[in-house]
Specification:
By secondary structure, the chain is an all-alpha fold. The protein contains 6 helices and no strands. The longest helix is centred in the first third of the chain and has 14 residues, at 5-18. It is globular, with a radius of gyration of 19 Å.
Length: 142
Amino acid sequence: GNVKDYQMTAWLMAICLNGMTDEETAALTESMVQSGVVMDWSNPSLPNSNNNNAATASQQQQQQQRNHKVDKHSTGGVGDKVSLILAPLVASFDLTVPMMAGRGLGHTGGTIDKLESIPGFRTQYAAEEFAQLLLSSSPSND
């Protein structure tokens, strides 16, 4: 549904003044998660799934590490002091980073706006295409 701006302002002020219980925070978080398309990264066919029974203990440990999918998200602010550096750094440790990012966030723009300034850098993918990118990326051997 739609919420009028003055209603949202009053609600946010009430939260600012009174806080939220753990239960309220959990309910709000769950409703926000369920408000859009939920992508399931638990697909066992992702390149980070553990399906090699003949792997050495070291390989199994690395494979188990790659089973983790991580994301970094920001509440906003001026500049991209972390996102543009952290995602590739974390991915270099063979963790899957299906990073979601924002656009048009204030006068500095969001992470997506900055990435789109790179000629040829593509930022928009259909959900199936995005999942396929994760499926096709293989762990580094470096």
